[in-house]
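Page 42, continued from yesterday. The earlier attempt failed because a stray header line got pasted into the input along with the sequence. Redoing it now with the clean sequence only.
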Amino acid sequence: MGRRETLLLLTGGQVGQLEAVTDRIRQASDIADVVGRFVALKHAGRVLKGLCPFHAEKTPSFTVNPERQIFKCFGCGAGGDVFKFIQLHEHMSFLEARRWLADRAGIALESDDASGPAGPSTRARLAAANEWAAGVYSKCLNEPAQGAATRAYLERRSIRPETWASFRLGLAPDRYDTLVAARKPSDMTLQDLQAAALVRLSSAGRPYDAFRNRLMFPIADAGGRVVGFGGRTLGDDPAKYVNTAETVLFSKSRLLYGLPQARAAFAASRRAVVVEGYTDCLMAHQFGIHDTVATLGTAFTNEHGQVLRRYVDSVVLVFDGDEAGQAAADRALEVGLAGRLEVRIVVLPKGQDPCDLLRTEGAEAFRGRLNSAVEALEFKWCHIQDTCRDTRNPAARREVIDRFIEFATSLTASRGLDEIDRGELLGRIGRLVGVSSQEVHRYAARIWGRSRRPAGPESSVAQDRTSLGPASLLVNRGQADAEESVLQGMLEVMLCEPALLDQVDEHWSPTMFRDGQLRRIAEALVQCVTHAGGPQLTDVLARLEEPAAASLAVELERLGRMRGNYPARMEDLVEMLGRIRHRRQTREAVRMAGLMPAGDPRKDEVLRTVSEGALRQQGFASLASLTSAGEAGEARL
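This time it went through. Structure tokens are written below.
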């Protein structure tokens, strides 16, 4: 749930409490300290500079302004306050970022349920339940008699005790009440275990354990907090692996097994190795390949790509050599394009998995496979070529080339790539298939033309901004009309000098913006002025849910400060807006007059009004009726 939706569910007093706590969190979270956890910052005058964590760069263009408590990247356009930084960096909602910063600052939050009493949040209770269960399962595995058979199984799989200790493996005994009957902390209830999907209720209403007779793999988030489990059967259950059911903490499409253990290695290698199984991940770490994580029985998703993009520049995906692996490779290529990750593919010999190969070949041979991984686009090209029975037949080869170019260019059309990335990708396609880049561009243009949907006037600018990426956040003044550009200029000034809003109230309002993001920034500014009087930029940013809108607000305010001279500039902009509107009204009046029948005495009146420059809104209302009458007269002729 976003900040705006949360506020709608709260009473006036609760809104005030939420805003007050949010303010305390902001004041306790110095942006230089928070950003410094993730980015190496150096002083450069009154600001701090470093390499941007949101895009690859060699020269620092990322700045933090401690005085104004905002950040801004002049390379990719990302910007905002401390909440927006955590939202972008950790891929969190506003409330999740708020919670993250509150935990860091040691500030207690109200209940996640806005209508309920204050107390520990639902997430905190679920996390505590999972942590407690991990301890119970670990104790069962290490108990001399109870865990003997499971420890012997691990030894047969060559998984050493230090490895299972590092990953906190456990045992869910073959009983229905291991967790149900275990002694719990005084503040933990069976309802908490139910909410964490650790306990279920029978049809008779009796609680029983969700996991039984399974080797347990605790699954943690990036911070090391246990949020769920994977369990491998130790008997003949046809469901070989089962995972925790989806909860507010546990989502298979977002989580990666082994992420906390791999983060340090990511920093060194800037690469993530993604395997398909828990034991594959364990064995890779045991053999010293510490930059390895595993999906939780799902395909590699966009959310996985977003998580890994925080830490690495490239991903090596290790698949089985079957058709399912090929489909997964296609999907991975899409994820790589969406997340701006270099994706490479390793296909293992049929019937082999990383766990087997590491035990038989050793670490160096497996590293050799990883280092020889094929770039995902080339992998797809090779696979399509393999389907061609006769590559010497020009018609057959042309069909293969067409299939590949259509596949690759359709991806570029749907992934929102900017012009540079798109051009680079099309160049790679041309080099792979051996055709000119001009021909690939022509083919791609046809694909993009088919995939582009018409947009209304309100969404067209916003869609252009999305497709061009963060570096093009500002409205393109060559495409936007003159009035929108002037309105944007007025917004720039008012973000720097909010008091000027009172002076332009009759000329300017958020509803005048066609661009959705500009309108939302203007609405946030008006709300802040209404409630806070003289707001700071951080107050406006706190009301913007979308990181892209926050980045745009930071850029607009920067431009406003750079141009300065606020009252005089606002006066010029108001005058310019009046001229633009008068010219438009004049053109419309002349058009209307042209529709009136010849000799109509009202026609001279309209043209005289235009020449005097006194056409007002009331005049337009009467002109509408004159026009309809004129059109009817022409129809009769």
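Notes: The chain has six domains: 3-105, 123-250, 251-375, 387-451, 472-564, 582-636.
Reminder to self: strip header lines before submitting.
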